[in-house]
Amino acid sequence: MALTLYVNTERWRAHQRSMCANFPDLVPVCKGNGYGFGHERLAEEVAMLGCDLLAVGTTYEAMRMKDMFSGDLLVLTPYRREEEPVPLPSRVVRSASTVDGVYGLPGSRVVVEVMSSMKRHGVRPGELGKLRAALEDVRLEGFAIHLPLDRTDGTDSVEEVIGWMDQLRAARLPLDTMFVSHLTANELARLRQQFPQTRFRARIGTRLWLGDHDSMEYRGSVLDVNEVVKGERFGYRQTKSPGDGWLAVVSGGTSHGVGLEAPKALHGLTPRAKGVARAGLATVNRNLSPFVWDGKQRWFAEPPHMQVSIVFIPAEARAPKPGDEMKAILRHTTTQFDRLVDR
After folding, report:
1. What is the pLDDT of residues 316-331, one digit of tens each?
2. What is the per-residue DSSP string for 76-112?
3. Quick one: how many helices (H) and strands (E) in the chain?
4. Which of 108, 95, 109 is nearest to 146 (CA)?
5. pTM attached to this predicted model
6. pLDDT of 13-29, one tens digit each?
């Protein structure tokens, strides 16, 4: 009995192949929990796609991934002098987002991140003169720009990249390779047309692995079902049942990531109103679970336990039974499954 990730493998891989076709020179990203699939599985998929470079989040991920993937590895987290040294092979490419960071990587293969409107990491325009001198002691693999997902001010992602290309060219820095993120295939084509001598490489994670939502689904096994009547007490905190029905004990708890929810950026009145309503219900211990039964997302009977959740199923719904599976609407990047089933 487990929390299982079911994958329609051929459909999932067909989406990967279509992404590679739409984004020539694509650099797959595998970081965190491997977008829910794990590092080893994604390393296998990248090898099958024939990609020569795989991006990881940290040096620690690179240390693990070097034994799973034989190609080059790009560490996305920028180098800092005070970081803990991690033994890595020469096929690992480091990112640098400061002039000092470049100076700290003599003899290394380096990608230099420039500051975008994200305002996260990056060398600024006024530092390009100093950067040119620092690059003499490294093997420059290219520049990179990490762009925002949303542009609520109406600005153009392509124009932002072009602006940086012009500044790099004015500073007499090489424009052989530019790593980009969060661009559409059409936007990438516009850049290739304007800069035919530059190799543009899109770093893509979420859209590559999770872009076809219907090709994968989480399901939790029903372990036990206990009938309750309204007002009957149950659980760790001896909560009263809100009505007649069943308490379904389902595989999937806090150790799997069930109950975790990342903050969301809300736009518009309706999403904000729903957020306020959810917060209000939570104050009276009413929390919607990710589990779906009989066509509806059901409520937690109480906060999820470490490896299971108790879900309240009202009497008017179809009765669950041990051995059934409940669909679970979970965020892949925060979920740890018990098993993955290809089908």
Report:
1. 999 999 999 999 999 9
2. EEEP-TTSPP----TTEEEEE-SHHHHHT-TTSEEEE
3. 9, 18
4. 95
5. 0.91
6. 999 999 999 999 999 99
